[in-house]
Design goal:
The complex is a heterodimer of chains A (355) and B (389).
Chain A (H helix, E strand, L loop, with lengths): L6 H6 L29 E6 L9 E3 L2 E6 L3 E6 L5 E6 L9 E3 L2 E5 L4 E6 L5 E6 L9 E3 L2 E5 L5 E5 L5 E4 L12 E2 L3 E5 L4 E6 L5 E6 L9 E3 L2 E5 L4 E6 L5 E6 L9 E3 L2 E5 L4 E6 L5 E6 L9 E2 L3 E5 L1 E7 L5 E9 L6 E3 L2 E5 L4 E5 L1
Antiparallel strand pairs in A: 1-32, 2-3, 3-4, 4-5, 6-7, 7-8, 8-9, 10-11, 11-12, 12-13, 14-15, 15-16, 16-17, 18-19, 19-20, 20-21, 22-23, 23-24, 24-25, 26-27, 27-28, 28-29, 30-31, 31-32
Chain B lengths: L6 E5 L4 H8 L16 E5 L17 E6 L4 E2 L2 E2 L1 H16 L4 H6 L8 E4 L12 H13 L7 E7 H6 L2 H4 L5 E6 L8 E8 L9 E5 H6 L2 E4 L2 E5 L3 E2 L2 H6 L10 E2 L2 E2 L1 H10 L3 H4 E12 L12 E10 L2 H19 L16 H6 L12 H7 L11 E5 L3
Parallel strand pairs in B: 3-18, 6-7, 6-11, 7-8, 11-16, 12-16
Antiparallel strand pairs in B: 1-2, 2-9, 3-17, 4-5, 9-10, 12-13, 14-15, 16-17
Helix pairs in contact in B: 2-4, 9-13, 11-13
The chains are: A mainly beta (355), B alpha/beta (389).
Chain lengths: 355, 389
């Protein structure tokens, strides 16, 4: 069950693409993305007719943005002009994921949509019995996504047909799953972390935390990292769920961890951004980076980017502020770093390309 | 539901200074005289048949308070202890022998029940998910199906910050009236209060459609919290400013017209008739910096739960509790109107308990009493304090 790297999935996309939450299915948080110097201007700025609660995805020269009032937008990275727009049948809070030429996302009407990324035509839709806020994760031809109905679903990436549906997980599944080669990991609103057999959805192990989970897990080697509303960040043995270490923050942890080398970066609702040592959970540094941090940090080569009540860049080794921009209000939003630009969408409905 | 009958009334009440004279020392030399509030035009939609359950409800003047140190430890709320407290408190409030029977006093299986949380101030201080989950179980025990229970507030992003979507059981609808700060699509164009406080261009505040039309009953779950403009944000403010839009305009530094607006809004039908029970979450008490502070220095872990059908009586008790805590901490009374305490610097307000952004107006509680929403005279309040079991 050891996950050596996520290179298989990363390789499926072009180098600069940003195919899902935290860049790739390895949830690396964009590690390796070149550091972008303090932006001096917005190359373009676009106001959508809807707030955006999610993070954009990027492929080649197109930025995909899901808007809360039910639209998926395809925007040209060059100038922000709209290529096409897809109207879903409900609100969208799910960060889009890219699979081949398709864009996948969940919707409050219980559906998971696959839309052709080139022209906005619907390719398939799959149905769950609850709202879908999590992102769809694609690996080896299968799509994994949690639903507010309390189940994790595995779908065929080609046609959306259901491969399996997990047993009830006791709470809503807002956590975006991590898909490893043979196992799928996800957290549930009832506070339990689950590991499923990839092929059939059989539960291999589960471990309870002290409160609900909306954080999305990351896997590094055989260590699974995830936050919980019980204030702790957990490092679990991915083979059996044993707790290797846990680190206590001051409030609940809704953010997803981002990993770079031997460092784990994660924000807490106590407003602190923490960098922990991957092997031990020892605190390397923490810094107050906002009133409450609920969105994931993005890990550039030497810089950490965080979109909370504004966008900020912090030095990865010390946490010191490198620059700050007073735009980009977000709860679960995170920026995309690519081609020397920073793309972000915000709760006030603005989409920016900064450089 | 009576939505075909619209009424218009001009509603106001005694100005703030007059109300204050009944409950606090006469204005001192360093106190300023507040401007008088304008009249408020109310356009409402009364229920066809007035509900006996509406504010002040079945037990006017009765407030049950429980405190249990086990209820919160290390800033974590214990759901099992909250369960015990809720059960004991509701039995005491209603005289019933089971929580299911107690909830059945307020809701029926056919009702669509709204649980009005207060996520403003999340994540540091908001309606505890542990308590909300217990209330959901209580409502279900009275026969209300999961699909008819809605946990709601005005702002979706504040609900999001509190992670309520994740933390509530599957099947419960979590609803934010607005998905943006200026979104007006979730409001009823026919039910509103109209008043002009400071020359604002939009003088109407509309009632949320979910309150005006969709919900049958509302269980109000405010927090125990200081408020920079209104003195406290308790039962009255949680349902008033949590049901109408465009309300922040009632206070413009340093003046506040939260009194009388809060009380007047609570009288507007059908809101008044639908609020049947108030369960105040005092697991934490924000004694300064409300409603949005995240500064733990101003948040006490008090482990308190209060229950009442009378929002005025409960807010009166809440006000006393916050005043007591502020005295203990050496902070000025929320009634103080001393210009030296006013600051325009929000950073100063959030770090210094002697400073405030507005001249607070806690007189809205007594004003609401005058409007018939409940009992504000402490001597007439049946305050039942239960010790930890």
């Amino acid at each position: 069950m050891t996950e050596k790297s996520s290179m298989t999935e990363v390789a499926a996309a072009a180098e600069g693409d940003w195919i899902t939450l935290l860049k790739d299915n390895g949830r690396t948080g964009g590690f390796g993305a070149p550091t972008v110097p303090s932006p001096t201007k917005a190359r373009w700025q676009l106001r959508l007719s809807s707030p955006v609660r999610s993070s954009p995805a990027l492929r080649e020269a197109t930025l995909y943005v899901t808007a809360q009032r039910g639209q998926l937008y395809a925007l040209k990275t060059k100038d922000g002009r709209q290529e096409w727009k897809f109207e879903a049948g409900g609100k969208i809070n799910s960060t889009p994921s890219l699979s081949g030429r398709n864009v996948l996302f969940g919707c409050d009407n219980g559906k998971v949509y696959a839309v052709n990324g080139d022209n906005g035509a619907k390719v398939w839709e799959a149905t769950t019995d609850g709202e879908v806020w999590a992102s769809a994760v694609v690996r080896q031809g299968m799509v994994f996504v949690g639903s507010g109905d309390g189940h994790l679903y595995a779908l065929d990436a080609e046609n959306g047909k259901r491969r399996w549906k997990s047993e009830s997980l006791g709470g809503r599944v807002y956590s975006t799953a991590y898909a490893a080669e043979k196992a799928i990991y996800v957290g549930s609103g009832n506070g339990t972390v689950y590991c499923f057999e990839r092929e059939n959805g059989k539960i291999l192990w589960k471990v309870a935390t002290g409160d609900g989970i909306d954080s999305s897990p990351a896997l590094v080697g055989d260590t699974l990292l995830i936050g919980s509303q019980d204030f702790f960040v957990y490092a679990l043995d991915a083979n059996n769920g044993a707790v290797r270490w846990k680190y206590e923050t001051g409030l609940g942890v809704a953010a997803a961890p981002a990993v770079s080398g031997d460092a784990v970066v994660i924000g807490s609702k106590d407003g602190q951004l923490y960098t922990l040592e991957l092997a031990t959970g020892k605190l390397r540094w923490k810094i107050r980076a906002g009133e409450a941090i609920t969105g994931p940090a993005v890990f550039g080569a030497s810089t950490i980017y965080l979109q909370s009540w504004g966008l900020q860049a912090l030095a990865a080794d010390t946490g010191k502020t490198v620059w700050r921009a007073g735009l980009g209000m977000g709860v679960q939003n995170a920026p995309v770093i690519a081609g020397g630009s920073i793309y972000l969408a915000s709760l006030d409905g603005e989409v920016y390309a900064l450089e | 539901m009576g939505m075909d009958r619209r009424t218009f009334v001009k509603r106001t009440c005694t100005g703030s200074a007059g109300l204050m004279l009944a409950g606090v020392p006469v204005l001192g030399t360093e106190q300023v005289v507040m401007p008088q509030p304008p009249p408020i035009d109310v356009h409402e939609a009364p229920l066809a048949k007035k509900s006996a359950l509406g504010m002040p409800g079945l037990y006017p003047g009765r407030v049950v308070e429980l405190a249990d140190a086990r209820a919160i430890a290390g800033n974590r709320v214990s759901q099992p202890v909250v369960h015990e407290m809720l059960e004991r408190g509701l039995k005491e409030l209603t005289g019933e022998t089971s929580p299911a029977a107690a909830f059945a006093k307020f809701v029926e299986p056919k009702d669509v029940v709204g649980i009005k949380i207060n996520p403003s101030g999340a994540p540091a201080c908001c309606s505890s998910p542990e308590l909300v989950r217990e209330i959901i179980e209580g409502v279900r025990s009275a026969g209300v199906p999961v699909r008819n229970i809605v946990v709601y507030d005005r702002f979706g992003y504040e609900i999001d910050l509190g992670s309520y979507q994740t933390l509530m059981p599957p099947g419960i609808e979590i609803f934010g009236v607005q998905d943006g700060l200026l979104d007006a699509s979730g409001y009823d164009a026919n039910v509103y209060c109209d008043m002009n406080f400071f020359g604002e261009w939009e003088t109407r505040s509309y009632m949320a459609s979910i309150v005006a039309t969709r919900l049958d009953k509302i269980i109000n779950v405010p927090t125990l919290k200081d408020h920079s403009a209104s003195g406290v944000t308790g039962c009255l403010k949680n349902v008033a400013y949590g049901s109408f839009n465009n309300v922040a305009r009632s206070h413009k530094e340093p003046y506040s017209f939260t009194n009388p607006l809060i009380g007047v809004m609570c009288t507007v039908e059908p809101l008044r008739s639908k609020v049947v029970l108030n369960i105040m979450d005092g697991m934490r008490m924000v004694w300064h910096g409300g409603p949005l502070t995240q500064n733990q220095d101003f948040i006490a872990q008090t482990g308190v739960l209060m229950m009442s059908t009378d929002p005025v009586a409960m807010d009166t008790i809440e006000l006393e509790a916050i005043e007591k805590k502020r005295r203990e901490k050496g902070a000025p009374s929320v009634w103080e109107h001393n210009p030296k305490s006013i600051t325009a610097d929000s950073r100063e307000f959030y770090t210094d308990a002697s400073k405030n952004l507005f001249y607070r107006q806690p007189g809205h509680i007594a004003a609401a009493g005058k409007l018939g929403l409940g009992v504000s005279d402490l001597k007439q309040i049946d305050h039942r304090k239960l010790q930890a079991s």
